[in-house]
């Protein structure tokens, strides 16, 4: 059911930030934006019938003449891109309007939740979805972050132990500056914004995630005691903002941007 059209912006058009995203954002960033608004990747599914599902997205469109922002649910199905009108949104920011639209789509029964296959050990569609999105290394957020750092002239090592006698591997390491960067998945590392406790086998998953958090804290402490600067980046963070944060720290650690360390990243960068 669509929300009533309030015609909120009568005197002037709504602000651009209410409907339009930043230009040049990667597909990974756009997907993360939709995940946040929907409340998780598993909450973006459309039932296509015959046991088939598709992951949908919300598209916001401004109608200049009427000064309204309308939301549409879009997905792909056998080369086609169907769309379903969800309703009018009335917030001042894009993130709030996406969240409002997802809530409206769910209330209208347009969103389904896909059950995991019988041979899956995930206890719910939510767990399966986030586990599929969390690879051990070379994840999309890692690769994007490394590409941005490399484009800035920064040189680093990938997937090594900052301390040879400590069995903890960092995702991006600046040995000369003694800076270790960890890109943490929201599920496995218990993101306070996106982690949702499992409802099945909850004690097991609670202990697992809490154990990961304790290990992260211990790693940070051990590295700092050894004189290292530790930076943790959540997978949902904008990689450009994370790259700026890392770059700002390096000069203070005796490492000027673009000066080089003689350490080249992997050829895939």
TrEMBL record:
Keywords: DNA damage, DNA repair, Endonuclease, Hydrolase, Nuclease. GO terms for molecular function: endonuclease activity; hydrolase activity. Residues 1-26 are annotated as: Disordered. InterPro entries: DNA_mismatch_endonuc_vsr, Restrct_endonuc-II-like. It comes from the Bacteria. CDD domains: Vsr. It holds the Pfam family Vsr. One of its GO terms (biological process) is mismatch repair. The keyword DNA-binding does not apply. Belongs to the Vsr family. This is Very short patch repair endonuclease.
